[in-house]
Write a structure and sequence with these properties.
By secondary structure, the protein is of the alpha+beta class. It has a single domain, classed as Aminopeptidase, CATH 3.40.630.30. The protein is built from five helices and six strands; from the N terminus they run ααβββαβαββα. It has a six-stranded mixed sheet. Helix 3 (71-80) crosses helix 4. The longest helix is centred in the C-terminal third of the chain and has 13 residues, at 100-112. The relative contact order is 0.15. The chain binds coenzyme A (COA). Coenzyme A (COA) binds next to strand 3, helix 3 and helix 4.
Length: 154
Amino acid sequence: MWEVVKAAGTLDLNSSYLYLLLARDFADTCVVAEHEGRVVGFVTGYRPPQRPEVVFLWQVGIRPEMQGHGLGKRLVTAFLRQPGADRASILETTVTPSNEASRALFRAIARELDTECRVEPCFRSDDFPDSGHEDEELFVIGPYRPSALNRLAN
Ligand SMILES: CC(C)(COP(=O)(O)OP(=O)(O)OC[C@H]1O[C@@H](n2cnc3c(N)ncnc32)[C@H](O)[C@@H]1OP(=O)(O)O)[C@@H](O)C(=O)NCCC(=O)NCCS
């Protein structure tokens, strides 16, 4: 996952230790896609402890040569079907205003779940201690029904 983030370029690169912890302790809210024995895409997330109806998607990344072929949608679908997303009815994530691919991805997921996608302010650029970070807008997708997940393509 750390290697894919480095290759994808637009994502915040966290420490390699952080990705090891996610794989060890949050595997039921994370998925990876493998191609010819190597990881080519991933989703990480968690359940916000105070809001059991929500599953939060932290990062989604696809190797550049695999982007634009439906893998992002397949990975988010797999993420929503993970045991860790069980009984969630709302998908949340944050996206920067300039990330057209990511915005299109989550709008497509909302459409296919037959639900709405609200976009709200979340973290502002000046909330980040490191300079040069864009605003992060909150995408709230839902509520969706469990049966809607069955309609999504694999
Ligand atoms: C964002 C990302 C995960 C999308 O994954 P992907 O496999 O390329 O996307 P998909 O092929 O599944 O496409 C999903 C939807 O987004 C649209 N889309 C994909 N790339 C797009 C682009 N560059 N511009 C506009 N729309 C785009 C597709 O048309 C599709 O919409 P549709 O179903 O309405 O036709 C991938 O581009 C990526 O890894 N980007 C770099 C890392 C990143 O920015 N992650 C997100 C941070 S929040």
